[in-house]
Amino acid sequence: MTTVRIRDASEYPEAARRLFELSKAWFGYDFVEPPAMSRVMAWDPGFGGPHGRAMKRAMGPGEFTRAEKEMVAAVVSGVNACRY
Amino acid sequence: MKEDALWYEAASVVGITNALNVVADGLPAEILPPPTEPGDEARAVFDEIRAFYGDMPAPFLTLAHDPGYLADFWGALRHAFDDHALTRRLKEALAFAVSLTSRSRFGTALHLGQMRRLGVGERGVMEILGVAQMFSSYSKIADTLQLESDMGAIAPVDRTPVPGA
Lengths: 84, 165
Known about the structure:
The complex is a heterodimer.
Chain A: H1 14-27, H2 36-41, H3 45-59, H4 66-79
Chain B: H1 4-26, H2 40-53, H3 58-63, H4 67-81, H5 88-101, H6 105-117, H7 122-144
Helix pairs in contact in B: 1-4, 1-5, 2-4, 5-6, 5-7
């Protein structure tokens, strides 16, 4: 049971809904509803905006591929015992 | 990263990295000094370890109190880190991220050194540091709000059999 009510995408302002389209492109997956984390991060664009940009900068291809970094992200989440 | 084999391999790296870090950070040499005169069996393993790392990480010295255990532990670690489906370079990056996330000063320093030794530059180090930091953030945000996983459908299911079956 989540601590807060995760709003549907339709409850967000237009600017946030445009971000959900970017999120869909990032994951390359057509979600029925954007992932809960995307909707959480869209709640406060002043935080979610730079946080998302930092994530994309870290995850973008460089010395390591995006796929390799997804694996790093998965093991970090595992160490943090995060099921999400 | 669709094949399960890659994830089994990554899990072995995470597990054995944590095992080494537990001894290194929790049982320093001043608490349990290594044997003063390790026997031939332990010395043969030490030679392999030095060749693998270019150095001798301290916790292996502690494990030499039981040379048979040292040999088996080293065998598992070596197998986990060798190039198989994943490269050793990526495995050192995974171990660095795991050590950083679990606050192991020993593991963070060891695997950072190994990444550099294997040719990872400062940009690559910052990439892994950034991923570890950002996903530590997402993890805690998800936990604080007790979000339920809704991303599982993204991953394809691997139906290939167990090796050797």
